[in-house]
Amino acid sequence: PILASAHENGCICLWSIQGNLVKELLPFSKYPLVPLTALCTDICTKMLLAGSKEGHVMRWSIASFLEDPQNNKNQIKEELCWRAHSTEVVDLLHEEEKNVVVTASVDGSVRLWHAMNGYYLGYFGQPRKLELSDISRLILPCDVNNFPTTVKEESKHMEKKKCEYPLMLDRDK
């Protein structure tokens, strides 16, 4: 078993059940790192979802890593990032049967998204019936203007690396 914790510096830490740090992850994003406020997985723990203080949702593939965490070839891959709300995401839920992600925000809205591509499906309380199978049209909520971003290649920013930059005085400069 692996425990996941979300942190104020935007990092996700994966821990062994004994309390040892197994891996640290940083989301790949063109935006500055912001506090993570919600985490969830699907039932089979193939994907990890995280919500942020700025309203973003990120999705990682974790299945191969969890099969053998000691194997460095089995990496955790961030696959998708989208803006779900204009304010903080306070809760996430992945509903596997319908393949949707439900997000809740401090603004009081509860929205539904397609889990595989981050397409907006609707919100609770809307006047029209929710169509969970229709993902042919790409629409956005009124307070969001960014389409989902697919992370296609491996990024150096995804894993937190410790670097040392010693201060050295160069008298010639």
UniProtKB/TrEMBL annotation:
Pfam families: Beta-prop_IP5PC_F (PF23754). Transmembrane segments: none annotated. WD repeats lie at residues 82-113. It comes from the Eukaryota. Keywords: Repeat, WD repeat. InterPro entries: Beta-prop_IP5PC_F, WD-EF-hand_domain, WD40/YVTN_repeat-like_dom_sf, WD40_repeat_dom_sf, WD40_rpt. Coiled coil: none annotated. Residues 35-114 form the IP5PC-F beta-propeller domain. This is WD repeat-containing protein 64. It comes from Haliaeetus albicilla. The gene is Wdr64_1.
